[in-house]
Design brief:
Elements (H helix, E strand, L loop, with lengths): L9 H12 L10 H12 L4 H14 L15 H4 L1 E8 L6 E4 L5 E6 L14 E6 L9 E6 L7 E4 L5 E9 L3 E10 L4 E4 L11 E4 L5 E4 L11 E5 L12 E2 L10 E3 L5 E3 L9 E6 L4 E7 L8 E4 L10 E5 L12 E5 L7 E3 L8 E7 L5 E7 L11 E6 L4 E7 L8 E5 L5 E5 L7 E2 L2 E6 L16 E6 L2 E2 L4 E7 L4 E8 L2 E3 L2 E2 L3 E6 L12 E5 L10 E9 L8 E5 L18 E4 L2 E5 L7 E5 L7 E2 L5 E5 L3 E10 L11 E7 L4 E7 L2 E4 L4 E11 L5 E7 L8 E7 L2 E3 L2 E9 L6 E11 L2 E11 L8 E5 L2 E5 L8 E7 L7 E4 L5 E4 L7 E11 L5 E6 L3 E4 L10 H23 L11
Parallel strand pairs: 31-39, 40-46, 48-55
Antiparallel strand pairs: 1-29, 2-3, 2-34, 3-4, 4-5, 6-7, 7-8, 8-9, 10-11, 11-12, 12-13, 14-15, 15-16, 16-17, 18-19, 19-20, 20-21, 22-23, 23-24, 24-25, 26-27, 27-29, 28-54, 30-32, 32-37, 33-36, 33-38, 34-35, 38-39, 41-44, 42-43, 42-45, 45-46, 47-49, 49-53, 50-52, 50-54, 51-53, 54-55, 56-57, ...
Helix pairs in contact: 1-3, 1-5, 2-5
Length: 888
C-alpha cells in the first residue's frame, strides 16, 4: 500500500506553485521562497512555458521521498515502529522466555503443550538457549532436561541465574514441586531443593533481599496451591522456607509486583479474577486486603509503571482481559500505590480488546501492548494491531501491525538493542505452535524519513560494573546530542500474558529526577535499596535528547561487598555411571561458611555437610548433582560445580534419542532424523518405532518410515518425514516412540517447514524507476521488497506484493539502488514463516525525459527546489502562513 504523504517532494511543490500563479510571469513578493527559486531559474533562462512540465517531470524522476514509498502493512516507522519477521523459525514451543545477562534468551518449554511428551518412559522435556543476534537457526540450541517444566514461572537470582519454579507432573492438572536453576556459564539446567507442594502455573517474584517468592499454581494433587513459599539462596539446607497460608484462593499465574515499600502487590487478576487486590509483607509473612477490583481481567496483562527518583512512586496498570466466555475488554486501569487508599481508576482504551496479550516496557517508559484477540484463542486482525501507551500523556497510539496473531503461550520481552521480541502462540491443536519469530522496532529507532538511526548513543564504559545500593558510578559514552535520561531495566521473563521480571528504574532525566549533566561522562548513583531494584543484573540504557536509546550494557547490583566464593567437588572427581541402588561418595576440600549439596534422585536429597559421604540412587535416570558454597555474608557461588550421575536400570532396558533437535525444509523436501537406541544393563531385544504428533500431521506432511524399521540391542535408524509443494510453513512437534513389549521410551524433535529465498533477483533500470522480477518461492503467499542506497544495506521495506514483480518509482536520476526480496507466508493458525533475503541486485536509473535543459540547468532546478522546500519548512516552523493568493 502507499503510505500517506507527510511532505510533498520539493520539486513537485515548486511545479504546483508555478501552476497556482498561472499566467503571472513572476510569483508575488509575499512568497519569498518561491520568488527566490524563480529568480534562480530566471538566471539560467528557463522559459515559463516548459517550466511546469520540467518541474513535474523532476517530481516524478528526480528526488525520492521516503514518505511516499510503498511499504508493508500500514506502518510509518518513525511514528508507529516496524514489525519484521526473522528468516528462521523457533524449533520448540516457546512457552516461557527469559532474557539473561549474557544477552541470550532462555526458552523453557518442557513437554511443549504436547501430552504425548509427558508420559511414562518419556525423555521429551526440552529447553533452549537463543542468541537473538544470530542470523540463522543455528543461534538456537535445544537440550533435553529431566522433568516437565511446562507452564512454570521464572525469576532471576541476584547472580543472574534464572530460577524456574514448578512445572507439570501430568496432563491431569497435577503440579510438580521441583525447581531448577539454569547456569548460563555452563548451559546446565540444575535442580535446586524442591518445594513443599506442586506449582503448575505459578508466579515467581524476585524480592528486595534476593529471595524469590513462589505464589499459586496447581499442587501435587491438582488443586490450587493456597500457600506462598520463599526461596532463599543463603538457606543452605531446605532452600525454601515453610509454606505461608493465604486468606484466599488465588488464580493461576497471579499478577504480582514488588513495591518500593518491600511489600508485594497482587492485582487480584490472573487466569481468573478475585474481588480484591492484596498486599503481602514477605518479612512479616502477612496478607492485607488493599482495594477492590473493578471486574474480571482473565489473561489480560499488567505492568509496574516506571519507578522514577527521587521518591519512586509506584503505579500498576492492568490491560485488557475479561471473562473468557465473552469478548475481551479494550479498557485499561491504573492504581497509584503511593497514596494511603489506592483504588483502580480508568485508563485510556487500547485499539481492541485483548485476551492472551503481552505488555512490554520500553526504555523511554512507554508500554507496548501487543498480540491477543477479542475472543479467547481465536485469531483476529485487530489483535495484530499493536498499541503504544505513553504514561506521561496517558494515551495510546498505534504501534504498527504484526504479521501473526500472538495468543495463548505467546511471549514478548525487551531485547538489549531496545527492540522487542514477539514469539510463540498455540491456539490450535496441542502439538503445534506458531514458529515465526517477529521483532518490533519502536519508533525511537527511526528518523523522520523512516530510515533506521545508526548514530545512537553508545556506552563506552561503566565504572564500576558491579555496584552496591546508593553507590556512585560513572558512565562514559559517545553521543551526537545530549543525554536526556538514563534508566535501568531488569531483564524480562514472560509467560502466559505476564512478564514476571521487567522493571524500569530511572537514574536521571526530566525534573524532578536528577539531571543528566556531563558531556561524555555521566555521574550517576545506583538505586537506594533492593525494594526499588532487587539485586541482580540490569540493562543500562542512555537516551539522547531525541529519545533515541543506546544499546544496553549490563551491570550488576549486589548488597555484597566481597567477591563470591568458588566451590569445587573433590569426590567424585568426574561424572559417574552406576547401577540403580548403587551409591556415590560426595565431598569437597573447599573451605566455606556453608555448603548446600543437592542430589536429585538421591537419598538423601540434600546435605549441608562439607563431606556428605555416600548418596544412594535407587531409580534409573540421569541426575545433575551440585554444590553451592556461601561465605559469611550469604554471598554464594554464581556457577556451582556439578557432577552428572547416570544411573542404569537394575534390569535390561533401553533408551531412545533423536537428532537433530529440529530440521528445516522447504515445501516439497524431505527431512531425515537419526533415532538412536542405546542398550542398557545388558539389553538385547528388538525395538520397533513409531512417530506421531498430538495435533496430527498437517496436510502435505507424511512419515516416510524408519530405516531400518527395528533395532536389536543398540543402533541407529533414519526417520524420514516427507512434505509436498502444497505444505505450508509450519512447526510440527514429533514424538518418536520406541517399543519392546511393555517397555516404551520416547524422544522429541521438530519438523520446521519454511520458505526458500527467491533464487535470483533481476533489476532493470528505467527513467527514474527500477523494475524488479524474481522466480517464485514454493509456498510463499507474498514477498517483501527492500531497498538500500549502499550495497549490503541497511535495507528498508518498500512493498509486499503477492506476485513476483515490482516497479520502484520516483527515483533520483543517475543513482544506484540496491534491492533484495524475501519470501513470506501468513495463513491459518500456527502457520507462518519468512525466508532469508534473495541475492542482491542493483540498477542505475536512467535520465529524465528531455525538457530542453542542460545538465547544469537541471542541477540548478533541483537546487532551487530544495531551497524552496527548506524555506517552506522554515516558514512553517516560525509561524508564518502559507500562500495567501488564491489560485486562478
Amino acid at each position: 500500500m502507499v503510505r500517506a504523504g507527510r511532505h510533498q517532494p520539493a520539486n513537485l511543490e515548486i511545479g504546483r506553485s508555478y501552476a497556482r500563479y498561472g499566467k503571472k510571469l513572476t510569483p508575488p513578493a509575499s512568497d519569498v521562497a518561491l520568488r527566490f527559486s524563480y529568480e534562480v531559474l530566471k538566471v539560467i533562462g528557463i522559459h515559463k512555458v516548459s517550466l511546469f512540465a520540467c518541474l513535474s517531470a523532476a517530481a516524478v524522476f528526480g528526488i525520492p521521498n521516503a514518505a511516499l514509498a510503498q511499504v508493508c502493512p500500514a506502518s510509518v516507522p518513525h511514528v508507529t515502529g516496524q514489525w519484521t519477521t526473522l528468516p528462521y523459525q523457533m524449533p520448540i514451543n516457546p512457552i516461557s522466555t527469559t532474557l539473561m545477562h549474557t544477552g541470550q534468551i532462555l526458552i523453557v518449554s518442557g513437554s511443549e503443550n504436547d501430552a504425548s511428551n509427558n508420559s511414562t518412559g518419556s525423555e521429551s522435556y526440552r529447553i533452549a538457549v537463543w542468541d537473538p543476534t544470530g542470523t540463522t537457526g543455528s543461534s538456537i540450541t535445544v537440550q533435553n532436561i529431566e522433568y516437565d517444566v511446562f507452564c512454570s514461572g521464572t525469576a532471576l537470582l541476584p547472580d543472574g541465574r534464572p530460577l524456574v519454579v514448578g512445572g507439570t507432573a501430568d496432563y491431569n492438572f497435577d503440579g510438580d514441586n521441583r525447581a531448577s536453576i539454569f547456569d548460563p556459564a555452563t548451559n546446565l539446567f540444575v535442580q535446586s531443593q524442591s518445594m513443599a507442594d506442586g506449582r503448575w502455573y505459578g508466579t515467581a517474584t524476585a524480592l528486595g533481599d534476593g529471595r524469590v517468592m513462589a505464589f499459586s499454581g496447581l499442587g501435587l494433587w491438582g488443586s490450587v496451591n493456597p500457600t506462598v513459599e520463599i526461596y532463599d539462596p543463603a538457606n543452605a539446607g531446605a532452600g525454601w522456607g515453610s509454606p505461608i497460608a493465604e486468606p484466599f484462593t488465588p488464580p493461576l499465574f497471579p499478577r504480582t509486583f514488588l513495591l518500593p515499600s518491600g511489600n508485594v502487590f497482587f492485582t487480584g487478576q490472573g487466569s481468573t479474577g478475585l474481588a480484591e487486590s492484596w498486599l503481602f509483607d514477605p518479612v512479616a509473612t502477612t496478607w492485607v486486603q488493599l482495594t477492590y477490583v473493578t471486574g474480571n481481567r482473565n489473561y489480560g496483562s499488567a505492568v509496574l509503571l516506571p519507578l522514577l527518583p527521587p521518591s519512586y512512586p509506584p503505579s500498576v496498570m492492568n490491560f485488557g482481559g475479561g471473562d473468557l466466555s465473552t469478548p475481551a475488554t479494550a479498557s485499561t486501569e491504573i492504581t497509584d500505590l503511593s497514596v494511603a487508599s489506592p483504588a483502580w481508576t480508568p485508563g485510556p482504551n487500547m485499539s481492541t480488546g485483548r485476551f492472551q496479550m503481552n505488555a512490554t516496557i520500553l526504555p523511554n517508559g512507554k508500554v507496548l501492548a501487543s498480540g491477543g484477540s477479542l475472543n479467547n484463542e481465536i485469531p483476529d486482525a485487530p489483535g495484530k494491531n499493536a498499541d503504544l501507551y505513553d504514561p506521561v500523556a496517558n494515551s495510546f497510539s498505534s504501534a504498527g501491525t504484526a504479521s501473526y496473531s500472538r495468543l495463548y503461550h505467546s511471549t514478548a520481552i525487551l531485547l538489549p538493542d531496545a527492540t522487542v521480541l514477539s514469539v510463540g502462540s498455540n491456539p490450535g491443536s496441542r502439538g503445534s505452535y506458531e514458529p515465526a519469530i517477529e521483532i518490533y522496532t519502536p519508533p525511537y529507532l527511526f528518523d523522520s524519513n523512516d530510515l533506521r538511526i545508526t548514530q545512537r548513543p553508545s556506552i563506552t564504559g561503566v565504572t564500576p560494573g558491579v555496584m552496591g545500593y546508593g553507590a556512585p558510578f560513572s558512565v562514559t559514552y559517545t553521543s551526537a546530542s545530549p543525554i536526556s535520561s538514563a534508566v535501568l531495566m531488569r531483564p524480562g521473563s514472560a509467560t502466559h500474558a505476564f512478564d514476571m521480571e521487567q522493571r524500569l528504574i530511572g537514574l536521571c532525566g526530566p525534573s524532578p529526577q536528577p539531571s543528566c549533566s556531563g558531556s561524555g561522562t555521566l555521574s550517576l548513583a545506583s538505586p537506594p535499596n533492593g525494594d526499588i531494584a532487587p539485586p541482580g543484573y540490569y540493562m543500562l540504557f542512555l537516551l539522547d535528547s531525541a529519545g533515541v536509546p543506546s544499546v544496553a550494557q549490563f551491570i550488576q547490583i549486589t548488597p555484597h561487598t566481597t567477591a563470591p566464593p568458588t566451590g569445587t567437588i573433590t569426590s567424585p572427581a568426574t561424572d559417574t555411571i552406576i547401577t540403580a541402588g548403587g551409591s556415590v561418595n560426595f565431598g569437597t576440600t573447599t573451605g566455606a561458611t556453608s555448603y548446600s549439596w543437592v542430589f536429585p534422585g538421591g537419598t538423601p536429597t540434600t546435605s549441608v555437610a562439607q563431606n556428605p559421604g555416600n548418596v544412594t540412587f535407587p531409580m534409573a535416570g540421569t541426575y545433575v548433582t551440585s554444590l553451592t558454597v556461601s561465605d559469611a555474608s550469604g554471598n554464594s557461588d554464581p556457577s556451582p560445580p556439578t557432577r552428572t550421575i547416570t544411573v542404569l536400570p537394575a534390569t535390561p532396558d533401553f533408551g531412545v534419542s533423536v537428532s537433530p533437535s529440529s530440521v528445516t525444509v522447504v515445501p516439497g523436501q524431505s527431512a531425515n532424523f537419526t533415532v538412536t537406541v542405546t542398550a542398557l544393563s545388558g539389553y538385547g531385544n528388538t525395538v520397533s518405532f513409531s512417530v506421531g504428533s498430538e495435533s496430527g500431521f498437517p496436510s502435505g506432511v507424511t512419515s516416510g518410515g524408519f530405516s531400518p524399521s527395528t533395532i536389536t540391542g543398540s543402533g541407529t535408524s533414519t526417520l524420514t518425514m516427507n512434505t509436498t509443494t502444497s505444505t505450508v510453513p509450519y512447526a510440527l512437534s514429533l514424538t518418536v516412540t520406541g517399543t519392546d513389549g511393555t517397555l516404551t521410551h520416547t524422544a522429541s524433535t521438530t519438523l520446521l517447514i519454511n520458505l526458500a529465498p527467491p533464487a535470483s533477483l533481476t533489476a532493470t533500470p528505467g527513467s527514474g524507476q527500477v523494475s524488479l522480477s524474481w522466480p517464485a518461492s514454493v509456498g510463499a503467499s507474498s514477498y517483501e521488497v527492500q531497498r538500500a542506497l549502499v550495497s549490503g544495506g541497511p535495507y528498508l521495506p518498500l512493498a509486499c506484493p503477492t506476485g513476483t514483480t515490482y516497479t520502484d518509482t520516483g527515483l533520483m536520476i543517475g543513482q544506484t539502488y540496491y534491492y533484495t526480496v524475501s519470501a513470506f507466508y501468513t495463513g491459518g493458525v500456527d502457520e507462518g514463516g519468512a525466508s532469508a533475503n534473495s541475492p542482491e541486485a542493483s540498477a542505475v536509473t536512467h535520465s529524465a525525459p528531455s525538457c530542453g535543459l542542460l545538465g547544469m540547468e537541471a542541477v540548478w532546478i533541483l537546487a532551487a527546489a530544495r531551497v524552496l522546500h527548506a524555506m517552506r519548512g522554515w516558514r512553517g516552523r516560525n509561524g508564518r502562513s502559507g500562500d495567501t493568493e488564491a489560485p486562478r
